[in-house]
Design goal:
It is a single chain. By secondary structure, the protein is of the alpha/beta class. The protein is 54% helix and 11% strand. Helix 1 (14-22) packs across helix 3 (68-82), helix 8 packs across helix 9 (233-239) and helix 10 (245-257) crosses helix 12. The structure holds adenosine-5'-triphosphate (ATP) and magnesium ion.
Length: 308
């Protein structure tokens, strides 16, 4: 069982404060998440599920690299700080570990997780469960075709849904934070159980400005000449439209790595290096998107070979 639990830590943890602060999101998102989460603990302690049907499930969805996992970890920490007493256990489930268990076993393991392991943990205090990439665990049964997806997946999804329902109703001490890139691949009955579904989209110009400013701030602490690049922040922000937070941060590293001179002495980094790195990134993204469209076209042809 232990292998499906990728991590189990006591909260709050100082190192997780950075997770909450690092992710730049639209105004209101952070507060909405935190208040819903805190409510899930406080209200469920006082009212029964019949009185207040709160499942204790929050779903974050959005494209890759937009900070969902990081934000969820930071959120867990903030929730713990807001509880009385200020503590909780964070349990991160590795969905791929669950999915890669021997055929026929997944369902058993899922049931054990929801009906034994998590309830046991919850008996000694609040538990926040991070279900990262939840689509691998709760795939939409309506979309799965039987040939492509073994019956085991259906059973595991059923087991997860049943387990989730029981856990939520009988254990007000448990909150599930789920993330996914593909909300459309999730079983609808899971989404219908969510108390809050929050889209974490690509960073807008304001968020990109904040990310870039923070990035330059970190770098300038070690290489003071980079202070001068801060004048170009709005230019970089405009040039990085459509780029996710993860790649945006990486692009600054890529810019430094783009020549031996800047790699040896990052103080030599000029705006042109950064713009060139951003342009390179945009080209890669364009190629990726073309490749994706090509695959999607093939895929839909496979599914509907006669154009149906
Ligand atoms: N909005 C953002 N603001 C600041 N940094 C960001 C943002 N989005 C992503 N990042 C950076 O990218 C890193 C990776 O993000 P994370 O793994 O949380 O994304 P994700 O949405 O879970 O991606 P995936 O869908 O691929 O799992 C973060 O640690 C952070 O450095
Ligand atoms: Mg993630």
């Amino acid at each position: 069982m232990m292998e499906v639990i990728a991590e189990q830590v006591h909260l709050p943890q100082q190192r997780l404060v950075a997770c909450w602060e690092a992710i730049k999101v639209a105004p209101g998102v952070r507060e909405r998440l935190l208040s819903q989460a805190v409510l899930a603990f406080t209200l469920r302690r006082k009212l029964s599920f019949e009185e207040a049907p709160i499942h204790g499930l929050i779903v974050l969805f959005g494209p890759p690299g937009t900070g969902k996992t990081t934000l969820a970890r930071g959120l867990a920490n903030e929730i713990a700080k807001a509880l009385t007493p200020p503590e909780a256990t964070l349990v991160a489930i590795d969905p791929h570990a669950l999915a890669s268990i021997a055929p026929g076993q997944t369902q058993k393991e899922v049931t054990r997780l929801f009906q034994q392991t998590l309830p046991e943990l919850a008996s000694s205090g609040p538990v926040i469960v991070l279900l990262d990439e939840v689509d691998t665990l709760v795939a939409d049964r309506h979309r799965l075709s039987l040939e492509a997806n073994p019956i085991d997946v259906h059973r595991a999804t059923d087991a997860a849904l049943v387990g989730l329902d029981r856990l939520c109703q009988s254990h007000p001490n448990v909150l599930l934070l789920a993330t996914t890139n593909f909300p459309q691949a999730l079983d609808r009955s899971l989404l219908s159980r969510a108390d809050l579904i929050e889209e974490i989209g690509l960073p807008d110009e304001q968020a990109r400005t904040q990310i870039i400013a923070e990035m330059l701030q970190h770098l300038a602490r070690h290489w003071p000449a980079l202070e001068a690049l801060k004048r170009e922040i709005s230019f970089f922000a405009a040039a990085s439209e459509g780029v996710d937070g993860r790649r945006l941060r990486k692009t600054f590293i890529a810019a430094i790595a783009s020549s031996l001179e800047t790699a040896r002495d990052p103080n030599q980094l000029k705006p042109t290096h950064i713009i060139a790195a951003l342009q390179g990134l945009r080209r890669d993204m364009q190629a990726e998107s073309e490749e994706r469209h090509r695959l999607e076209a093939l895929w839909s042809h496979d599914l509907h070979p006669h154009g149906a």
